[in-house]
Amino acid sequence: MRFKWLALISMILILLVITACGAKGQEVSTGSGQDRVESGATSQESNVKTVNSEMGEIEIPETPQRVVGLSVVYPEFLYALGIVPVAVQNYHDDFPSYLSEPFSNTMKMGIGKTPNFEAIMEASPDLIIAPAWWSQKDYDQLTLIAPTVLLQGRDDWRDELRDIAKIVNKEEQAEQVIQDLVEKEKIAADTLNKLIGDETVLYIRVMEKEIVMHGENIDRGNFVHKRLGMKPVPNFPQSEKAMSVSLEVLPEYDADHLIVQLDDETNPEIKKKFEQMLSTSLWKNLKAVKEDHVYMVGGKEWFNLGMAPLADSYVIDDIVAAFEEKNEFR
User: What residue ranges are annotated as transmembrane (predicted)?
Assistant: First the structure.
C-alpha cells in the first residue's frame, strides 16, 4: 500500500512539473506534437470552456476525448450519449451484456469508498465526471489528475442525464434518449397488459442474507409497477419502498406472477440460498410457482434498473420476452 501511494505521489509530481513546463512555453513531446505544431493546431489549453459544478465554476476541455465516469451509473449515462469512457467503477466482475462489447477496451477499477487513483491516472483522462455525493471527499486528489466536474444528486436519472449532457455538449441526444425510452415503455406496458391484464406481480431480489420485495415507491418497483403498469399485490404497505423479508413471510404476498432476480448470479452463497428456497414447501405452494409464472431475470443486467436508461431499455426487452414465453398462448 505504501508503495502504491509513493508511486501515486511521484506521478502527480511529474504531472505538475510537465504542466509547469508547458506554462513556460516549453514544448512537451506527445508523439504527434510535431504534426500539431506544423498544422497550426491550437493547444488543448486554449480549447476550454467554463462549466458550473458543485465545486463552483471550472474550466474543462471543450471537446473531451478521454472521459472517466465515477459511480456505477455515470458510465451508462456517458455511453447513452455516445461517449465510451476510458475507465469506470464496476460492481460486478463483468460488465452487463449491453455494455460488454462497447466497453471492451474500458478499464475496470472495481468499486470502493475511495477510487483507485493510480488506475485513473493510468487511464490519462482529460475529464472526470462524478456525482458529488460519491466523490466530493476525493475531489482534491481527482483534480490533480484531470479537471473534475462534480454534479448534484438527483431523484430522477433523467435529470442526471441532462446534467451530464450539458457538460459534454450532448443535450439534444439526452432528450432523444429520454423520449425513445418513453415510447418503448408505452409499447411494453400495452403488451404486458394484453398478456396478464390485472393479475398481480411481485418483484423480489434474492440476496446473500435476505429477500427484498420492491414496492412501487422505489426506482426498481416504480419501473415494474408504474412505468410498465403491472399491478402490485394489494397488501404491500403503501408507505414502504422496499421490504426485507424471510421466506416464511413471502406467502403473505402471494402474487399471480413472480419476478425473481438473484442479486449476483455468480455468487455461490446466493445461488445456494436460492436452491434451498426452491426445495421448500413454502416456495412450492406459492401461487406463481404452481402456475409456472416465475420469471428469472439477470443480476448485473438489472443492477441499474430504474437508475439508468440502458438498464431500463434492456429490462423492457427482457421482461416482455419472459412474459410472452409463458403467457402468450394461455
Answer: none
